[in-house]
């Protein structure tokens, strides 16, 4: 069962530039405000992830992602595949809008985005009013944490708020596909 009382505190943390830990479809994720460079840099330090790799944005609906995606570059024949696959644990790598900051895209001119059906993610994005940065809750190259207690041991005060709600029940992280070619980066 979700606990809506968690959300205002998690959203407050996001609004203040903090990093939160929250459940996704398969794993716990670290997230922050994608428009706050300092928050994204803090998340990258916590995770020990280089900015060049880029990050995923997770949203309640595609409309929340339009600011970051160059929607006009999506071919009509690819749109059916993309939009019929959501909401689900499928991340699409799309052309990034020119205004999308490099702290999100890294070395790429694309942005990885997902519309989630996880109730906690949906609620957080609705109440925050935009997508969240979403990256697995682990140090780069290490196993993802599997519980709030394990996360608190690993990240301690580096994470501003821990959303203690259930994972979505999937056993694998999201599939990542190229929106232009259909190529699978992670299956």
Automatic annotation (TrEMBL):
Protein location: Cytoplasm
GO molecular function: ATP binding; double-stranded RNA binding; L-threonylcarbamoyladenylate synthase; tRNA binding
Keyword Transferase annotated: yes
Chief location category: cytoplasm
Catalytic activity annotation: L-threonine + hydrogencarbonate + ATP = L-threonylcarbamoyladenylate + diphosphate + H2O
GO cellular component terms attached to this protein's record: cytoplasm
Keyword tags: ATP-binding, Cytoplasm, Nucleotide-binding, Nucleotidyltransferase, Transferase, tRNA processing
InterPro entries referenced in this protein's UniProt entry, alphabetically: DHBP_synth_RibB-like_a/b_dom (IPR017945), Sua5-like_dom (IPR006070), TC-AMP_synthase (IPR023535), TC-AMP_synthase_SUA5 (IPR050156)
Superkingdom field: Bacteria
Free-text function comment from the UniProt entry: Required for the formation of a threonylcarbamoyl group on adenosine at position 37 (t(6)A37) in tRNAs that read codons beginning with adenine. Catalyzes the conversion of L-threonine, HCO(3)(-)/CO(2) and ATP to give threonylcarbamoyl-AMP (TC-AMP) as the acyladenylate intermediate, with the release of diphosphate.
UniProt protein name: Threonylcarbamoyl-AMP synthase
Biological source species: Pseudoalteromonas carrageenovora IAM 12662
